[in-house]
Amino acid sequence: MTSTARVLRGAYLTAGAVSVLAAAAGPRGDRFTRTVKPALMPLLAASALAGRRTGARPGAVTGAVAGVVAGLAGGWVGDVILMGPDGRSADSRTRARNLNRGSAAFAVNQVAYITALWRKGHRPQKGPLALRVPVLASGVLTAATGAPAALPAAVGYGSLLAAASVLAADPTVTGRHADLHGVGLGGNLFVLSDGLILARQAFLTGQKPLVRVLDGIVDGLVMATYVAAQLLLVEGLTRE
């Protein structure tokens, strides 16, 4: 990793930490969220671009990085959508529509990761697949019972997210390449992050004091797992 990439990585982690604290603070932290969160994906993309090894197959590296960076652009759009005022609306249907729009943008992110994983030799294996099918089913059930308006996100985006996680956990690849162990963890953290978003959408609605406190805690966990997941995936998939 180049010195520029290290600085950008540090800036990403700092912005991520601020975003986690702002999310956990609830509405009081929204001003910081609107300032800092939009910088996350550009910082991570810049870090990936700066971290390319000059001596390692320039064409292949550029292609891998370009695909991941394109996916991060979708993630940036999703971040902007989800941090909007509709994300904290007291109306569950408004929040669900916001989630569906954000998930459509994040679908671009997941497609980029699926493509990059496939190109690196990752394939679906029975073990990871068997573990993630119940997780996807539980997400769909959660949406169907607690937030039916969010079913497009749970089914459509959830399927892409599960597919990326299955590929990232391919033991036949990660077992041969220690550098890719973080990719599997990143895929799992992404599933956890978005599962928490769905649970928050389904169960933490209304303006009661306890609900608002729990909502902030869960939102902070969403950001923490998301920041870590993106970093692990990007660094693993853009490394030669």
UniProtKB/TrEMBL annotation:
Main localization (coarse): membrane
Protein's membrane topology: Multi-pass membrane protein
Stored InterPro entries: TMEM86B-like
Signal peptide range: 1-22
Transmembrane regions listed in the UniProt entry: none
Cellular component aspect of the GO annotation: membrane
Pfam family, one: YhhN
Record flagged with keyword Lyase: no
UniProt keyword list: Membrane, Signal, Transmembrane, Transmembrane helix
Subcellular location: Membrane
Family: Belongs to the TMEM86 family.
Name of this chain's protein: Lysoplasmalogenase
Originating organism: Corynebacterium provencense
